[in-house]
Each structure stands twice: as C-alpha cells, then as structure tokens.
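seq:
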Amino acid sequence: MDPSAPAETSAARVAVRMERRALLIRDKSPEAMFVLDESAFRRPVGGSAVMTAQIDHLIAMAQTPSVQVRVMPFESVTPIALAGGFILLSFPKDPDLMYTETGSVSQFIEDRAIVFKAGVHFTSVVSEALNRAESIDFMRLMREEYREST
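struct:
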C-alpha cells in the first residue's frame, strides 16, 4: 500500500482486505489458490516479528482444505510470473472474472479472451511453483529464519 496515501484511504483499503480475508475462514469458504513469489518472504516488511506472524498465518491458511499457498522460488524464473499479479474469480453460473490491483488502481476485467489467457498463465505459474507440501516447508524455514533474527 502507498505510505503517502491519506490515512482514511489506507484504513478503507485495510478494511476491504480484512473482509476478503474473512471469506476464507467462514463456513463454506471458497476454494482458493495463491502463488507468492519468494521475494515476498525475503523482504522483511515490518521487521522480523511482523514477518513471523504473517508467515504463521500463511502456514495456517495453507493447511486448511480449501486454501493452497504455493511459493514461486527464485530458481523458477518464468516470464509469465514476472508480468505482475492478478486474481482469477470463477463462479458456478456466472462468467469468470479477473481482478487486478496496482497501487491505487484496481479493476475487474470481464473480457473472456483476457480472462482465459490469464487462466492459462496461472496454470503455467502453478506448474513452476513449489507443490503444496514443499511450499509449507519453505514457509516454515523462512519463519524460523525470522524467529532467529528477533
């Protein structure tokens, strides 16, 4: 998030993100898969204590049946993964959507060709990422590194 944004803007963004997070822990939560770049674990935003708590949360979420958290290691350099993040939303009856968020701009994309291509890219990224168990092991290792540095 932009540290220069007004406090009310940052507070609103945090509130929206907390609402999205709550969706993953409710009864009948949606299936979700996340691919996080290794750099997200190596950049100590907020310091060691914050990183430890964040990684603990990711490990807990990754161990729930409806959530997968995969790590894209530095060794897997796929150009598609370097293009930027996006969220694909699939619905039982409605068309799929793509959501992008960069800085202060966010948008939903409904164009079927674009959403389909993003799905193909996501499948490619998942194939390059660590599997579920390897990702959890990686997160545990990173958590221990941060714990040792506090």
